[in-house]
């Protein structure tokens, strides 16, 4: 465990901060699903009260603000959090982050993806029969290095729930957020403004953590010119620009928030461990430039379960222990087989290279330059993703987005207003599909797969128009919820097809994950 004050010696402020950090409200958000029958059946209208649980969705924004206030007035004995030495958020930046809620709720693409994550957690739980893999139960097949060179700071993430990125939704449970800090813990130059160029990690190379094949990538999402709590108003994906790489049959790394037009790989490309795949940026749901990194069991982010991983060739520092009356080397020492320790950052010994678990608050550096002997898959390429598969997935996304518009706008507006907004969304999506390639220098002919979202929106608009003129029309919330679930169901079916296809393709290439296990056993 991370060195921290015991319950007996911790001050009330420290205990309150610990309680806030360990509280997981997203399970309460899931109770909002119970409101759905209340909209479907008049006799169950009382269940609509459960929609209030959706307000707990705001907790991830409230908790840091409360922690910031408690931390600001904490004395030295209260400074027990591993991240207390890091200086990223200020009161002003959190205020800006709150102001950004308004455009976020007005962006149906973002709202649809947030809701898909919640439902995707249910899909992942079903896949694992209610028990998501943890550090004790998951068998790691890939050999991973840090996705960056140099010394970086872990500001979010751990194998332990208390310091995890976010325990729920499960697709980000074991994710990590990396930035570069100076010796005083600042992630940007103190004197300069919040322009992205003043953040130490901005535009730094992002590397493939292991050998693998790129299965998904996006490079054209915009990013805000400033950090300080701001994100781009017109972002189309909560991940911004990203790369997803398959390393084993059910192990995919996801590298997120990259600089626009910095992605150097395409789906189907084979990448080697340590190869540059993009640059650290500020796209998507990002309050300031940073790298979001995780390993997941599925190529689709929304329905994936994040997997616990350990890294090879890592040197760690624990700045929060400096000056404390504890053994400052405890958090970084190496374990031998059979050792027992309470350290949160153990080295795993499994017959192969030593693997280190990292945690929030640590500075981490990649120190092993031997990247040639860690191949986890053969040097080959997978078949390109079928056009119809990508198109159907985007069609599902479009229907889900249309359902979100119908549901939320329908609360305060009439049928005709909802239809008008859907028609406007179809027009905007169609124009982006047609004109986007020219803006991005991709040529004159638009990609057929990108038409999926506007087509899905058109299907939704036609359905809502028909429902509005039908004497047996359902309520706007009921119809919007049904359309969202229909689109999400389409996405899940296509995503599961892709997962199984990629599993077969990996096995066909002679993946060595099982071979590695046998070699270690011998």
TrEMBL record:
A single MF term (Gene Ontology): metalloendopeptidase activity
Residue span of region Disordered: 333-352
Keyword presence, RNA-binding: no
Domain (M23ase beta-sheet core) ranges: 203-297
Keyword Membrane applies: yes
InterPro entries from the UniProt entry: Cell_wall_metabolism_enzyme, Dup_hybrid_motif, M23ase_b-sheet_dom
Membrane spanning residue stretches: 26-45, 52-74, 395-413, 419-439, 451-468, 474-495
Taxonomy, superkingdom: Archaea
Name of the protein: Peptidase family M23
Species: Natronorubrum sediminis
């Amino acid at each position: 465990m991370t060195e921290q004050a015991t319950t007996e010696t911790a001050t009330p402020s420290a205990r309150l901060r610990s309680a806030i950090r360990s509280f997981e409200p997203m399970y309460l958000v899931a109770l909002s699903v119970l409101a759905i029958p209340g909209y479907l059946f008049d006799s169950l209208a009382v269940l609509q009260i459960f929609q209030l649980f959706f307000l707990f969705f705001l907790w991830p924004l409230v908790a840091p603000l409360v922690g910031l206030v408690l931390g600001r007035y904490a004395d030295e004995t209260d400074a027990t959090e591993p991240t207390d030495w890091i200086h990223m958020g200020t009161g002003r930046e959190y205020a800006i982050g709150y102001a950004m809620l308004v455009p976020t709720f007005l962006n149906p693409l973002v709202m649809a993806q947030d809701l898909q994550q919640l439902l995707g957690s249910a899909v992942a739980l079903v896949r694992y029969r209610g028990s998501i893999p943890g550090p004790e139960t998951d068998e790691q097949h890939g050999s991973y290095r840090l996705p960056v060179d140099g010394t970086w700071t872990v500001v979010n993430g751990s194998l332990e729930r208390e310091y995890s990125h976010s325990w729920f939704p499960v697709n980000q449970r074991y994710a990590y957020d990396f930035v570069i800090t100076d010796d005083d813990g600042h992630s940007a130059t103190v004197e300069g403004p919040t322009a992205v160029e003043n953040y130490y990690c901005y535009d730094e190379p992002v590397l493939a953590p292991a050998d693998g094949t790129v299965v998904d990538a996006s490079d054209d999402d915009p990013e805000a010119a400033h950090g300080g709590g701001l994100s781009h108003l017109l972002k189309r994906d909560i991940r911004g620009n990203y790369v997803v790489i398959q390393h084993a049959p059910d192990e995919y790394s996801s590298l997120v928030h990259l600089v626009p037009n910095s992605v150097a790989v395409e789906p189907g490309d084979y990448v080697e461990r340590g190869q540059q795949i993009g640059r650290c940026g500020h796209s998507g749901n990002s309050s300031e430039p940073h790298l979001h990194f995780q390993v997941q069991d599925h190529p689709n982010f929304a329905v994936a379960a994040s997997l616990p991983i350990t890294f090879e060739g890592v040197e760690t520092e624990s700045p929060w222990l400096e000056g404390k009356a504890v053994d400052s080397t405890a958090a970084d020492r190496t374990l031998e087989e059979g050792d027992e320790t309470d350290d949160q950052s153990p080295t795993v010994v499994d017959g192969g290279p030593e693997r280190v678990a990292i945690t929030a608050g640590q500075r981490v550096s990649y120190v092993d330059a031997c990247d040639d002997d860690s191949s986890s898959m053969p040097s080959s390429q997978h078949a390109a993703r079928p056009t119809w598969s990508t198109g159907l997935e985007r069609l599902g996304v479009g229907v889900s987005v249309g359902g979100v518009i119908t549901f939320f706008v329908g609360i305060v507006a009439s049928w005709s207003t909802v239809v008008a907004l859907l028609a406007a969304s179809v027009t905007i999506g169609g124009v982006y599909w047609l004109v986007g390639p020219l803006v991005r220098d991709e040529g004159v002919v638009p990609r057929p797969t990108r038409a999926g979202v506007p087509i899905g929106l058109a299907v939704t608009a036609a359905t809502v128009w028909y429902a509005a003129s039908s004497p047996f029309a359902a309520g706007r919330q009921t119809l919007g919820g049904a359309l969202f679930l229909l689109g999400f169901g389409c996405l899940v079916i296509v995503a599961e097809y892709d997962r199984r296809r990629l599993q077969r393709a990996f096995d066909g290439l002679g993946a060595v994950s099982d071979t590695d296990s046998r070699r270690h056993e011998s």
